[in-house]
Structures are given as structure tokens and as C-alpha cells.
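Exercise 7b. C-alpha cells:
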């Protein structure tokens, strides 16, 4: 079968390490399911793998792609829960399994004609979602769902600030929080992305670092160093900040005095459980929320898609389809 394989790692020229090549069609071991891939979307995670960041070189070569939807050998339309992990090893929460792995880290991913995954990773695709839409959801939308509703305990009527509206997790968080009845404030460095935030359901959008009309109950943080101080200052006493990423850097001034005096809660968040992903899918099916797709390309044009993503030319997800 045809697959997009990371065959090397290079920090300055990641795309030279990605090759479309013929590989053997996988045969599922006992307890695993084979899926004919219909659509698979791109993430910066794939680029970090090609650059050699956060990916063990001993797992190269590997097929990239961690957001996948397709059809099982017995004809079920499915979407893949992308974390291979054991809930028992995480006290009932697979995101806490110390040996958890995202698809394409230790196991071949979805930029290929077929993929095999553990049976528990197979989730029925809601009929309301196309394969292209479904393939945009497992990583960013499930992460945003856990940040808001599990870690952040968001309730209707709460006020939430989402930093860096242009990001994949941030834009999903804006849409989900607004649909859940929260008042949503968003920040972005550009006018264009502030307009996008309003389109997604934010009630108001501000330049990064601007004073908000009121303090908030919850901050959704994926930008990191550049916005951390602002996030802390925007919280009401007792409010919570949930952090899942640090795009602009990992070491801001901690401002510990503010944290203890205002009794703020700082919570990390990574990925989602299978259950949270199923709940997120139900929420999309019933609310009509949909991910924004920038473009759809065939597997043969995957390099073109990655080049656009690396250049920051995209507004929404790039989806790869496989015929
Ligand atoms: N924990 C998890 O499970 C998980 C899952 C997915 C992603 N992540 C992580 O979450 C982070 C966000 O990823 P993403 O793909 O959603 O978005 P992203 O494309 O990495 O960017 C997030 C946003 O940060 C803002 N930003 C970047 N540099 C900035 C700076 N110097 N100053 C101010 N704002 C800046 C930008 O917003 P504006 O342009 O709108 O200002 C950008 O859109 C990444 O670090 C990623 O690795 C974690």
C-alpha cells in the first residue's frame, strides 16, 4: 500500500525526511482492527516528528498521521481514538498511563491506505460528520474538550478566556465553550484571527495582553510564555488556568505570589480519554459545530500540504484523503 513515511529527522529541512513509498499492508494482530483510511488530517506534531523534536529516533521509519477516519474490514464507518494506552495503568484514566503513545509515535499512523489499531481505539463515526470532518477532531477537539469540561469544570454561565485564538486547540475551545453557554473572551495578535474568534462564537476578542471587561473563571492556555502573566492577571480569585501547550516558550515568570494569594488553580491537560472523545463527538453531532477545513488533498500531494502548514498559510485543518 502507499504510505507517507518519516524515514529520517532534520530540524531545518523536515520535508526532506518525508517519503511516499510502498509498504506492506498491515495485518491486525489479535485484539486489533484494520481500517481502510478515508481521511487523515495534519498536525504540527507530524512536523515535530520530522524535525526530531519529542520523537525517539529509534521509532523511525514510521508512518505519520494521528487524526484518522475510515472504514473497518467489516464495513463500519469509524473514527480513531488516537492514544494507545492502558486505562488501568493510569488509575482508570488512560491519559495518565506513563507509557501512553499517540498514533505515529510508536505505532504507524494514518497517512496510508490502511491502519491497524487496538479494538478499543475504534469509535463509530457519527453519521452527521463527513470523513473529512471526523478526521479533524481526535487530537485538537478532544484536547479542548478535556481542558474545558474535565480539567476546567466549565459550566453554563461561566466566563472563559481563550488565549491565542488562531491555534487549533484554542479555536476548538472557543467553539465548544460558546456552545456550552459560557461567555467567551479570546485574544489574538492579528485582526484577522480576532474576527475568526468572533465567527467561532467568542463574545469579544482582544489583542494579546489587553485588559478584559471583567475577570474570568477559567483560562484556556496553549500559548505559554507570551501570555502566562496575562492569563494569571485575568482570573478571578479562585479561578483556574488549564494549560495544554507552550507554543511561545515554557518558562514564563511564575508569579507565585499571585497564585497563592488569589488562590488560583493551575492544571495541566494532555489529550483526552476515549470517553471524553465520544462525548465531544456527541456534542458536535447535536450542536452542529464543525471543524474548519482549509483544504483537502490526496495522499500523493501530502508534501504540498505540509509546506503550506509550515509556512502558516492555512486557516483550519489540512485533510489528506486516500482513495
Ligand atoms: N497537550 C495536548 O494534548 C496537546 C494537544 C494538541 C496541541 N498541544 C500543544 O498546544 C500548543 C498549541 O497548539 P495548536 O496547534 O493548537 O496551536 P499553535 O498553532 O501552536 O499556536 C497557538 C497560538 O499561539 C499563539 N502564539 C504563538 N506564538 C505566540 C507569541 N509569541 N505571542 C503570542 N501568541 C503566540 C498564536 O495565536 P494568535 O496568532 O491567534 O495570536 C497561535 O495561533 C502547542 O504547543 C501544541 O504542541 C498539546
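Sequence design result:
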Amino acid at each position: 500500500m502507499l504510505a507517507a513515511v518519516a524515514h529520517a529527522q532534520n530540524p531545518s529541512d523536515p520535508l526532506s525526511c518525508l517519503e511516499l513509498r510502498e509498504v506492506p499492508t498491515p495485518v491486525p494482530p489479535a485484539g486489533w482492527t484494520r481500517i481502510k483510511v478515508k481521511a487523515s488530517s495534519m498536525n504540527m506534531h507530524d512536523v515535530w516528528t520530522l524535525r526530531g523534536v519529542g520523537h525517539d529516533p529509534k521509532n523511525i521509519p514510521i508512518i505519520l498521521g494521528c487524526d484518522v477516519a475510515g472504514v473497518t474490514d467489516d464495513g463500519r464507518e469509524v473514527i480513531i481514538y488516537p492514544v494507545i494506552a492502558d486505562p488501568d495503568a493510569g488509575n482508570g484514566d488512560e491519559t495518565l498511563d506513563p507509557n501512553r503513545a499517540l498514533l505515529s509515535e510508536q505505532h504507524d499512523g494514518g497517512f496510508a491506505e490502511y491502519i491497524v489499531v487496538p479494538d478499543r481505539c475504534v469509535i463509530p463515526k457519527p453519521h452527521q460528520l463527513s470523513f473529512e470532518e471526523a478526521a479533524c477532531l481526535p487530537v485538537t477537539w478532544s484536547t479542548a474538550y478535556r481542558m474545558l469540561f474535565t480539567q476546567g469544570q466549565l459550566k453554563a454561565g461561566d466566563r472563559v478566556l481563550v488565549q491565542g485564538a488562531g491555534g487549533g486547540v484554542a479555536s476548538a475551545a472557543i467553539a465548544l465553550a460558546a456552545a456550552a453557554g459560557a461567555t467567551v473572551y479570546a485574544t489574538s495578535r492579528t485582526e484577522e484571527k480576532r474576527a475568526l474568534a468572533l465567527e467561532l462564537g467568542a463574545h469579544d476578542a482582544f489583542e494579546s495582553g489587553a485588559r478584559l471587561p471583567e475577570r474570568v473563571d477559567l483560562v484556556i492556555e496553549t500559548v505559554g510564555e507570551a501570555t502566562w502573566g496575562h492569563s494569571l492577571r485575568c482570573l478571578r480569585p479562585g479561578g483556574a488556568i488549564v494549560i495544554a501547550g507552550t507554543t511561545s516558550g515554557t518558562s514564563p515568570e511564575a508569579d507565585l505570589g499571585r497564585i497563592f494569594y488569589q488562590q488560583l488553580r493551575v492544571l495541566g491537560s494532555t489529550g483526552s480519554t476515549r470517553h471524553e472523545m465520544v462525548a465531544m463527538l456527541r456534542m458536535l453531532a447535536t450542536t452542529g459545530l464543525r471543524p474548519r477545513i482549509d483544504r483537502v488533498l490526496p495522499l500523493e500531494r501530502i508534501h504540498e500540504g505540509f509546506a503550506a502548514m509550515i509556512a502558516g498559510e492555512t486557516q483550519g485543518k489540512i485533510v489528506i484523503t486516500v482513495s
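Instructor comment: The mean pLDDT is 97. The two ends are 11 Å apart (CA to CA).
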